[in-house]
Amino acid sequence: MNKRFALQSVAALALAAFLVPALAQDKPIKVGVTAGPHAQIFAEVKKLAEKQGLKIQVVEFSDYIQPNAALAAGDLDANSYQHKPFLDQQVKDRGYKIVAVGNTVNFPIGIYSKKVKSLAELKDGAKFGIPNDPTNGGRVLLVLQDQGLIKLRADAGLKATPLDVVENRKKLKFVELEAAQLARSLDDLDAAGVNTNYALPAGLHPGKDAIAQENAKSPYVNLIAVREQDKSKPWVAKLLKVYQSEEIRKFVQTEFKGAVVTGF
């Protein structure tokens, strides 16, 4: 009787050891995204991943700061919304132990206006909105430099600010706002640089409505980020493989018609 009981106990322990990893996987991976295209894409990633046994919970944010703060605090397992220059700046400024694990998509930033149909039509002293974070603000300034409206210090680089403008042909007055606010502020501005993930939900299409646009082959390819301690975990590789699949590539091409391009 005791021998039989012992054998049953061993079998039960073996079964428990087998089930614990399986039960652990039932907890979904929490992924932070910004509303708009990132959320739309991850809705597709979630469906595809769950077919392969990886459960995902998508958590939407309305700004660029909170997804990294939540990831660093352990409230998220990953996020997908930022490019590397932005992540690098956040890590430098805030000391986050966050790393990129793979590329996702690129959103060429566009210049939009409800008052003019070209940059040439901007009047002297026009109010021009740019994102108030150093990386995305720099992107817009570089577009303006490429278009010949301004000239930046030679060493300004990707993080240029209005303080780096050394020539301003039209004496543009730069208005720095949260990136999410710019599309909604076009009535009060003469023009503004708007990130595509905020432009699309506002009904602005880069290919149709932008009066100027960033080169699609820019350094601003977006990425999936995780905490340093998690980068080698199996779910990270699985998540990245699903995102960078042909199914997701086709979804991006079909859904966004060139407004968003894959970076993998």
Distance between the termini: 62 Å
Question: What Rg, in angstroms, do the CA atoms define?
Answer: 23 Å
Q: Tell how many strands the DSSP assignment holds.
A: 14
Total of DSSP H or I helical runs spanning 4+ residues = 9
Secondary-structure element series: HEHEHEHEEEEHEEEEHHEEHHE
List unreliable stretches of 5+ residues. Answer: 3-24
Query: Strand percentage, roughly?
Result: 15-25%
What helical percentage do the residues reach? 25-40%
Which structural class do you get from the secondary structure elements? alpha/beta
Assembly state: single chain
General shape: globular
Query: How confident is the prediction overall: mean pLDDT?
Result: 90
Q: Give the biggest beta sheet.
A: 5 strands, mixed
The side-by-side strand order for the widest beta sheet comes to 2-1-3-13-4
What does this 3D model show about the protein?
The chain has helices at 2-25, 37-51, 66-73, 84-94, 134-146, 196-199, 206-209, 234-243, 246-256; strands spanning 29-34, 56-61, 78-83, 98-103, 105-106, 110-112, 127-131, 150-152, 165-168, 173-177, 191-194, 212-213, 222-227, 261-262. It has 264 residues and is an alpha/beta fold. The chain has a five-stranded mixed β-sheet with strand order 2-1-3-13-4, with helices on both faces. Strands 10-7-11-6-12 form a five-stranded mixed β-sheet. The chain has a two-stranded antiparallel sheet with strand order 5-14. It is globular. The model is unreliable at 3-24 (pLDDT under 50).
